[in-house]
Amino acid sequence: MEGYSEGTTSVVRAEDLVRVYGAGDTEVRALRGVSVDIAPGQLTAVMGPSGSGKSTLMHILAGLDKPTTGSVKIDGTDITTLGDDALTRLRRKHIGFIFQFFNLLPMLTARDNVLLPLSIAGQKPDEEYFTDLIDRVGLADRLTHRPAELSGGQQQRVAIARALVSRPTVIFADEPTGNLDSRTSGEILELIRASVDKYGQTTVMVTHDAKAAAMADRVLFLADGEIVKETGKTSQHEILRIIDTLDLS
Amino acid sequence: MIRFALQGILGRKLRTALTAIGVVLGVALVSGTYVLTDSISSAFDSIFTENYKNTDAAITGKSAIDLSQDEAAGGVAPPFDQSLLAKVQALPEAGVAEGGVFGEAQLIGKDGKTIVFGGAPNLAFSVTPDRPEFNTLALVSGAWPAPGEVVIDTQTAEKKGFQAGETIGVQARGPIQRMRISGLVEFGQVSSIGGATLAGFDLPTAQRLMDKEGKLDQILVAKKDGVSEQQLIDAIQKVLPEGTQVRTAEDQATADAEGTSGFLDFFRTFLLVFAGIALFVGSFVIANSLSITIAQRTREFATLRTLGASRRQVLSSVVLEALVTGLLASVVGLFLGLGIATGLFRVFDAAGLTLPNNGLVFSTRTVIVALIVGVLVTLLASLRPAWRATRVPPIAAVREGATLAPTRFHRFRPVGAALLAIAGVALVVVGLFVDGLSTTTVLSSLGVGVLLIFIGIALFSSRLVRPLAAFSNPVARWSVLILTVLAWPFFSLPYWLLRRGVWGPGSSGRRTAGFVLGAVLNPVLLLIVLIMAVRRRAGSWQPEWPADFPGVLPDRPATEIGGQNSKRDPHRTASTAAALMIGLALVTLVATLGAGIIKPFEDAVDRIFSGDYAITAQNNFSPLPPAVAQAAAAAPGVTSVSSVRGGQAQAFGETIFITAVDSQAAGVLSFDWQAGSQDVLGQLRADGAVVDETYAKDHNLQLGSSLPLQTAGGKTLPLKVAGIFKPPAGGSPFGNVTISTTSFDATNPQPLNVYSFASMQGGVTAANTAALEQALATFPNAKAQTREQFKDAQSDGIRGLLNVLYVLLALSVVVSLFGIVNTLVLTVFERTRELGMLRAIGLTRRQVKRMIRHESVITALIGAVIGILLGLGLALLLAARLDEVSFAVPTGQLIIFAAVSVVVGIFAAIWPARRASRLNPLEALQYE
């Protein structure tokens, strides 16, 4: 590991991000100068209403989109200047994803879906870690099943294991409970929380669910492309109150 | 609903265009065929009509037997006595009458060899300088020939560098004569027909050259004013001797055209069969594309149903969409056909077979047939997918990821498909093995049978996709690796060097050196990269540079996913592969039958022909005058020369091909005797005949049976069967009846040899070859070949035909290539979100491309495997039926076909893979 540059305590550092879509009359400023540091080993939640720019922020932090101005450093590398191939390789090593719609490959078994990132990168799985991981996400008896044979919650567990399997620098979760019922949502959130605690997995979660945000070590509130408030670990009740006072609903 | 259907087409322009390509190409071939054959036919008609424009009646020789085919080609009917001309001229009804002869005469090029374009004949005519209106030939420049002079066609003059005033070697039935070229001519209005060379002489010279002194082949008569055509004919009829006939000019033109129109009908049907195959393959592509599109539009149809659309309306909207697509495709195909016809004229011209062309003929029939066929095929192909669309329940509108429910017939599908294929095989077997069916019944049961087999196997093959994909997976990986390694120095490396040269990185010295090397390795890529540079400078395009050094090793993870993808939807993979399967099955069939014909033919040559050398015409098939064999016999070292004469005769009321052998035959030819012995060949004399086994059986002939044979000259030979032989499986060089040269020559005024064989002291040696060639030097049209050369030369014709078939079948392979492109594009579209996820978790663009390429190659290989096996199976059936064909697996060619399939897979993937790799992972994630 190249390690972090001297004196930094963040794995993801974004400086003055501006993202403008379109031009002229149809110009939309999705981000208006956002700076954020993501500390290692923490679960950070990004909250905000639709159109607040929270998804745009996550996409730019994950190297899926490029800012109009500003820079993003992941593990000390400025990703905004990288070409597609270099960026893809950086994603393989440093970034994991959890999607709202799970996005599993239907023709692969749960096991192959979990191992997919390693397979793409041409790496062999660490059997001990893999077994531990599968136990932790509770998929031991589901490994040979295909996505169509799994429930939504189980599919999202596969997706979480897939994100964790390459031990990335940071995991980005995009509304991970957005497509699940409330009981299953709770289980999935517990799992994400546990992976942060057990493996020290830095995770950024975009959500509009106050219950999800209450699990985070830190909550960023976005509105109109700007960070309007930031708190440490907060109760669900407090989060709802903040949303209410900031008129973010 | 109509507007909905039309907007569906507009909204999916690209997909509609891709779907329609199969129909466009098929219809283009249909319309091209008609335009081509109509144009040739109209050109021929005008030639023949032109020939007789100043004539009212034509007198020709009449063969004792029906030789309608050969007669039109000019001159197998025996010539008649010249004295008839004076009698006709003396008739009060006749105005002007002129006699003429025609036949073959070779022109000798400046290199001393006979001038032959393609395999076209060397035609010779007499011309009448003072009555040019009667001449078949039209003078272009110079003058009509004086005695001992010649006029030649403009094509020969141009291509072989001759001018009026020069001398040229001419040879008809005797030795070469040097003659002065007095002028250049054309045949009617075209410079040439099919590459034939033309030579014209004045009548006495022509008669002398063609061994027709005192004889004529034709008399053309113009009536006197005030006499009707019929009166003239009646008057001539009265003075006609035995063996001649008179026709009106119009009838004569029709009779002349008969041979060509028969050929053109065959040619047209032949091309239309291949157009039909392309359309059939195209219909698979359409059905498959529509099925995929409809599956993807499930929610759209469901929404329509919730809004109150009936099943019928859904059905008609899909069918209407197909109808409009079919119509558009047919119109495009129709006009593309004009291009195809022009292209074919050029191709034949380049091959030296100039076809007569007075401008393209675009008849109403062409338009109607092309449009109806194109629309009908599209419509039929759309019925099943359209019916499926009606099965979409309204609830699918609100359900995430709704798919089409399996129909209630779903579980019967494999059984039904198998039954269809079995019914097809049964029809083929009936067509092949049941005796006593008419040709039409045989052909249609074969055609329908093969069609059913294709459809049945296409439907059934979804069951075979998983095992075949598992088999193809490593094959695809290895074959792509091999092809990539082969192409690497000419594509991947120069492309990388050129791009690096233009955009860096690296020191300018190394970049320049690399750029130059790249440009040398592949100049075409230089052009492409320069265009890229211009576009980049213009700011319209931003390339992704710098690119990685191109590797050749297969990308395991990418091919792994690609392999899985090919098994995902077996129905889709199967029907995509089925289009290619059809083309490959037919190509395999052709190749296997070709091998099955060539091999026994070569065996037959080895078995029959024990001489050292064969003497044939330069074009390998034209008969040669007996003088050639005599010259060869005189060469030093020749121990024996035996010739086989060939001609037609009539026996038991039917026209048959007969051959004649001389007394030397026993030494160089060996027969497989069923009755009689080798000695019989030398002792046929005046009344002996050897017949083949089948002919003997059909006519109940035994040794000693009498066999009355009427020759072309009109005389009947009282023959007795002296031997019965079994002709070799590879085709016999002998006719049904073989007689002695003596009795053949006695009744044929102008006997010709089809083959001559020579045995020499010491066998095949360089010295012997030189001695024979020396002896044949006075006959530029003759050549001596060793047995091996002879075999190759004789099977060249079959190989040429095979190549023509491959080219025509290649069109259906191209159609199936577009089918794969279509499926892949639709699949990429459908898997947008999935591709986005893969890109997000680390698949590079190149890996995406390889993933899709691998899926494409596997699909192509599945089609290839089924197609090749099917082709072999059909060939086995045909070989079991046809005595002339044995079953031989052309392993080398089959490997080439499989490799071509891999290339088809690679090419089909190029564009869909580019589209997939350009997908922005972000858009992919947000895509719903």
From TrEMBL, chain A:
The keyword Oxidoreductase does not apply. The keyword Transport applies. Residues 12-249 form the ABC transporter domain. SMART domains: AAA. Pfam families: ABC_tran (PF00005). Gene3D superfamilies: P-loop containing nucleotide triphosphate hydrolases (3.40.50.300). GO terms for cellular component: membrane protein complex; plasma membrane. Keywords: ATP-binding, Nucleotide-binding, Transport. This is Putative ABC transport system ATP-binding protein. It comes from Kribbella caucasensis.
From TrEMBL, chain B:
Coiled coil: none annotated. Keywords: Cell membrane, Lipoprotein, Membrane, Transmembrane, Transmembrane helix. Residues 273-394, 807-921 form the ABC3 transporter permease C-terminal domain. It is a multi-pass membrane protein. Pfam families: FtsX, MacB_PCD. InterPro entries: ABC3_permease_C (IPR003838), MacB_PCD (IPR025857), Macrolide_Exporter_MacB (IPR050250). The keyword Lipoprotein applies. One of its GO terms (cellular component) is plasma membrane. It comes from the Bacteria. Residues 16-238, 573-775 form the MacB-like periplasmic core domain. It is found in: Cell membrane. The chain crosses the membrane at residues 270-294, 314-340, 360-381, 415-434, 446-466, 478-498, 513-534, 577-598, 804-829, 856-880, 892-911. The keyword Cytoplasm does not apply. One of its GO terms (molecular function) is transmembrane transporter activity. Belongs to the ABC-4 integral membrane protein family. This is ABC-type lipoprotein release transport system permease subunit. It comes from Kribbella caucasensis.
